[in-house]
Each structure stands twice: as C-alpha cells, then as structure tokens.
C-alpha cells in the first residue's frame, strides 16, 4: 500500500484524487476545497491542499 502523497504526510494512501494516492483526511480536505472553489468561495491560489499534489497529477504536468 502506498503512502499519502501530500507533503509531510505518512498516512496510508487509501483513496485517490486525480489518480494520486491520498489519505482519508486529505481527500476530505481536497473535496471540501474543490467544492468551495466551484462555489466561488475561494480562489484558485487558496486551494493549498490541491496544490500539494498538483505536480503528481498526470494531466497537470508540463513536459
């Protein structure tokens, strides 16, 4: 089993977000953050949890 890919997290990556393994707590945080973003309650730059895994998301990489 992989570990959560969020920086500084050592929990088991039991779930995924955008194909990236994350723990239960970080998945919940990213989901809430995403909902707030699409409801226009927070800006893109305020999505700190999402930004933590963004370099690992296959379709967000620039090669």
Keywords:
2 strands, 10% strand, globular, 63 residues, 2 helices, alpha+beta
Summarize the structure.
The protein has 63 residues and is of the alpha+beta class.
Shape: globular
Q: What is the number of independent domains?
A: 1
| Estimated structural class | alpha+beta
Q: Please, what is the oligomeric state?
A: single chain
What's the β-strand tally? 2
What is the distance, rounded to the nearest whole angstrom, between the alpha carbons of the first and last residues? Answer: 28 Å
Helix content: 25-40%
Largest sheet: 2 strands, antiparallel
Poorly predicted tracts of residues: none
- In percent terms, what proportion of residues is strand? 5-15%
Radius of gyration: 12 Å
Instruction: Give the averaged pLDDT, no decimals.
Output: 94
Please work out how many helical segments DSSP would assign. 2
Q: What is the succession of H and E elements?
A: EEHH
Q: Which strand order do you get reading across the main beta sheet?
A: 1-2
